[in-house]
Specification:
Helices cover 44% and strands 15% of the residues. It is α/β, with parallel strands linked by helices. The protein folds into two domains: 143 residues, NAD(P)-binding Rossmann-like Domain (Rossmann fold); 201 residues, RNA polymerase sigma factor, region 2, helix turn helix motif (Rna Polymerase Sigma Factor, Chain: A), CATH 1.10.1740.10. Helix 11 runs parallel beside helix 14. The longest helix is centred in the C-terminal third of the chain and has 19 residues. Bound molecules: magnesium ion.
Length: 387
């Protein structure tokens, strides 16, 4: 008989959070929602509170939180303000926490969950890219990370086919985004509206742009290296437009294991929740005879500088992954607001990486300071001051 698992969902109104709740909806006999947290989607979280009857809901936007105070179901505690995500992340009765927060703000809640000994179904890659040292230390408290990102989940699943010492290569696949066949000239004219259309995955704005620029893949190279403890020179990227093979692991005998499925995040979310078990998933079955062809090719590094920049951030280590992430976050924001061109995004990141030098990181405050500096450098480049 399956046991009941208490699950909290951070970023519950975002793309990952909504799909996690969908998985929970289809397995009510197995999962109970313990606590929910969002940034400011007050009406949506209110509806979810009435549907799932959690012990607590959190909203980091204090004003929005106050606005729903009277409407919550009886016995549901409200956590309002900046602390909300950290409080919900460590909520006492939860065993598993789905962390679907986007951006660097997912890091402190991750640390809070791990320090409280929780299992974390983690979709937030920035927290690993920027905070891996702190995350490693937090593992001492008994917490565990189960990856939700489709590529990391694929690798995690493929790794069960052999021993860690038998792994020779991780092969991350990338859809290549909507612009993989564009010429350099066409790339210059890409608008935010175009960049927000992803061919195979339906996701939030930031990650959709990151998928087009391949900065998302760059972050995943760094994330995979830290999560699975594999050096960057043993990690490859292949463009795979069909998004069916979600990533692969090569073993020393030359055998390569891949994980295949229709592109549906619910599968990776569910596996992170049920690991090491597998249970039926509400997603579609793979029919390879209908897909017919699976293709793979190497990314064009000239058109997608994000990949080479990620390797150099990883090889240099120290603050560089934080700079890579922070500068990109700022640049994507500026692009979406019409302040820079699509092709300026990578330039802003490169500029920040060459203008910030190493120093040691020992706390979340250190990481936040470097993140702020990286964003400032990206803005400086955007304003043309750094030319
Ligand atoms: Mg991914």
């Amino acid at each position: 008989m399956a046991f009941m698992m208490n699950v909290s969902v951070l970023g519950c109104t975002g793309s990952i959070g909504r799909q996690a709740l969908d998985v929970i909806r289809s397995h009510r006999d197995r999962f109970r929602v313990t606590a929910l947290c969002a940034r400011s989607a007050s009406q949506e979280i209110l509806e979810l509170a009435h549907e799932f009857h959690p012990e607590a809901v959190g909203l980091t936007d204090e004003q929005k939180a106050i606005s729903i105070k009277g409407g919550l179901p009886e016995g549901c505690e409200l956590i309002a303000g900046k602390e909300a995500s950290r409080v919900i992340a460590a909520w006492r009765s939860a065993e598993t926490v789905v962390n679907g927060i986007s951006g660097i703000s997912g890091m402190e809640p991750l640390l809070a969950s791990l320090n409280a000994g929780k299992r974390v179904a983690l979709a937030n890659k920035e927290s690993i890219v920027c905070g891996h040292k702190l995350v490693k230390d937090a593992f001492e408290n008994g917490g565990k990370i189960l990856p939700v990102d489709s590529e990391q989940s694929a690798i995690f699943q493929c790794l069960t086919a052999g021993k860690k010492t038998e792994v020779t290569r991780l092969i991350l696949t990338a859809s290549g985004g909507p612009f993989r066949d564009y010429t350099q000239e066409q790339m210059e004219r890409i608008t935010p509206k175009q960049a927000l259309c992803h061919p195979t995955w339906n996701m939030g704005k930031k990650i959709t742009v990151d998928s087009a620029t391949l900065f998302n893949k760059g972050l995943e190279i760094i994330e995979a290296s830290y999560l699975f403890d594999i050096p960057g020179d043993q990690i490859d990227v292949l463009i795979h437009p069909q998004s069916i093979v979600h990533s692969m692991v090569e073993f020393l005998d030359g055998s390569t294991m891949g994980q295949l499925s229709v592109p549906d995040m619910r599968l990776a979310i569910q596996y992170a929740l049920t690991y090491p078990d597998r249970i039926p998933c509400p997603c579609e079955r793979l029919k390879l005879q209908e897909i017919g062809r699976l293709t793979f090719f190497e990314p064009d590094n000239r058109k997608f500088p994000a990949i080479a920049l990620a390797y150099s951030a990883l090889f240099e280590g120290g603050v560089m992954p934080i700079v890579y992430n922070g500068a990109n976050e700022a640049a994507v924001d500026m692009f979406l607001n019409g302040r820079i061109r699509y092709s300026d995004i990578a330039e802003c990141v490169e500029y920040a990486m060459t203008h910030i030098t190493g120093r040691s990181i020992s706390s979340a405050e250190d990481i936040a300071a470097i993140d702020t500096e990286a964003k400032r450098k990206a803005a400086e480049r955007a304003a043309g001051k750094g030319r």
